[in-house]
Request: fold
Amino acid sequence: MNAPRANVEWSEQFRLAAKSWVAKEAAASMLEESKSSVLSQHMMKLADLPVSRAEMQVKASEEWRDFIASMVKAREEANFAKVRCEFIRMRFGEWQSREATKRAEMKL
Reply:
C-alpha cells in the first residue's frame, strides 16, 4: 500500500484512491457476474456431453481454475483499493486531530 504523497491535498489523495477503488470494484464485479455465462460458454464447446458431465469437465479444467483465480485476484485488488481509501481517511483524521491539538496548545 502506497503512503500518502507529501504536499498533495487529502481530498486529492482520497479522490485518486477512490477512483482506483471504483475501477477495481467494477472489474471484480464484472468477473463475478459473468461467471455463469463463462461456464455456459465452455460447456457449449462440449455439446455432445450431458450437461452435468460437461459442467464437471469444465470445472475440472485448468482454464476454469485460471478464471476463478483471476476473479479472486480482482476481488483482492478491489478490497486493497478500498482499504487504501480508508487508510487515507484515517490519516486525515489523525492529521486533523493533531492540528486541533496544536491550536488548543497555542491558546494556552
The chain has four helices and no strands. The radius of gyration is 23 Å. The helical segments are 10-33, 35-44, 51-59, 62-107.
